[in-house]
Amino acid sequence: MKGSPLFRVILSTLAIATLVGAGLTLGAAPASAAPRVSITVTDRPSLHGVADSTYLTEVTVSGTGFQSIENGFGGIYVLFGWADQGSWKPSKGGHTGTDYRYVYDDESNPVGYQLFVSFPGSSTSYANNGGYLKKNGTWSATMKIPGPVFQAYNRSGKVTDVNCTKTQCGIMTIGAHGVVNAKNESFTPIDFTKIYSASDGRASSKAIAAPNTAVAPSAIGGRPATIPTVVDFATKPDGAVTTSVGDTRVTLTVPGASSDKWLGVYFDGGSSTTEDPLFAGWFKPSSTGLVDVNIPENLGAGEHTAVVYSTGGSVTGWSAFTIAAPVEPAAPAASAVAAPVAATAGVSPLLIPTIIVGALALAAVALLVWAVLRRRRTAA
Questions:
Q1: Shared domain check, 192 and 247
Q2: Taking the mean position of all CA atoms in its chain, how far away is CA 367?
Q3: Contact between residue 220 and residue 129 where contact means Cβ atoms under 8 Å apart
Q4: Minimal CA–CA distance to 147: which of 42, 45, 52?
Q5: Is pLDDT at 330 greater than 60 in this prediction?
Q6: Is the pLDDT reported for residue 344 higher than 90?
Q7: Rounded-to-integer distance, Cα 99 and Cα 228, Å
Q8: Could you read off the pLDDT of 239-268 as tens digits, one per residue?
Q9: Is 263 part of a structural domain of the chain?
C-alpha cells in the first residue's frame, strides 16, 4: 500500500519530525567548557588527587577548558594551598591572605612549589616554568607539594599556619601577573595520605615558612617579589603620570622612568575609595616611559586612579582615568532580521520539543492505524 494516501501522510509526518529535530540540534550552540585540572602522583600514575602526608610529593597537573589568548599578557599561576570556597576567586573579590593562601616559592631559587603557565606568544613567556597554555585550552606540568603544613600571610600581614590535614587544600589556578580572568580560575582538592615509606628515599615533608615579606607568585626573571604597601587612595599622591585608556589596556606615561627599572602599578578597586585596591603587577617601561597594563575584568566602568611605585616602595606618581561603559549595539530593523522558522509560525522556541514529541506520536498512531487496516483488508 505504498501508494495509498495514508502511507504518504505517515511518511510526510516522519519527515517533518526529523527535519524539525535536526534543525533544533544544529541550531544549538555548544556549551563552553569550565576549566578543569587533574592531579596525578608523577611516579604513581594510578594515584589521583592525593599527596603524601610525610614526604614531599611531585605531582603532574594537567588542565583542560582554559582560555588561551594568543600573544596575550601573562597566563595562569598554578598554586598549592587553601581557598575559602565561598569567596576565594579573584574575579569575585577574593584576596590573598584572607580568601586564599598558598605555598610561596623562592624567586631566587624556585623549586617548583608554584607554576607559571604562559599564553602562547606572551612577552612574559621567558619565565614560564610550567610551559604554555595551548590554543586548545590545555596545559600540563609537574610541581611539588612540600607537605600538608605551611605558613602564609593573612590580610593584616601576620604569619598564619595552614594545616591541610584539618582544612581542605588543593591546586588553584588564577590569572597571572595581576590580570584577573574568571575563565581561568579553578580549585581542585588534594587529600593527604600515606604514599611513600622511609625505604623509598623520599625527602621528608616540612612546614614551609612564609618569606620575610609578602610576595607575589613566581617572581622570576628579576621581577620584584614584594608587593608595595598601598597608599590611601582618598589622599592621592602627587605625580605627573598620564594615562591613555584603550579597550582592554591602560597605557601609563611615567616621566623620567628608566627602561631597566621595574615599576609597580595599583588600581583603585572601584569608583568608591573604600574598595580594596588591585595590584596589577610589576612592569618595565619602554624607552619613552610607557607602561601598558591590562585592565582587570573586575575594574568596572567609571572613574579610577592608577598609582605607580618604584621597587623601593615609594610612589612615583598617580593619574586618574575613566573607563567608559560598554555601548549596547542598536537592535537591527525587523525587516533586516531573518526570523527563526518557529517564530514565523507564531510558535515559541520553548514549544519545539513538545512539537517534536507530538509529531512522532502522531506518526506512531498513523502507523498503527495503517497496520490494522492492512490486516483487515488481508483477512477479508
A1: no
A2: 53
A3: yes
A4: 52
A5: no
A6: no
A7: 20
A8: 678 888 876 678 888 888 888 888 888 887
A9: yes
User: Does residue 160 lie within any of the structural domains?
Assistant: yes
- pLDDT bin (cut points 50, 70, 90) of residue 208 is low
* Angstrom distance (rounded) from CA 287 to CA 244: 17
- Distances, alpha carbon 118 to alpha carbons 22, 75, 170, 334, in Å: 41, 4, 21, 45
The number of distinct structural domains making up the chain is 2
Q: What are phi and psi of 127, to 5 degrees?
A: -105, 10
Q: Are 161 and 65 in contact (CB under 8 A)?
A: no
**pLDDT tens digits, 216-240:** 444 444 566 566 666 665 555 556 7
Say what the pLDDT of residue 64 is. 96
User: Would you call 345 exposed, middle or buried from its count of C-beta atoms within 10 A (0-12, 13-18, 19+)?
Assistant: exposed
Residue 196 makes CB contacts below 8 A (sequence gap 6+) with: 52, 54, 55, 57, 202
CB 216 within 8 A of CB 225: yes
Which set of grid coordinates corresponds to residue 343? 517564530
Residue 14 pLDDT > 70: no
Tell me if residue 83 falls in helix, strand or coil: strand
Domain that holds residue 141: 36-200
pLDDT exceeds 90 at position 42? yes
Same domain, 188 and 306: no
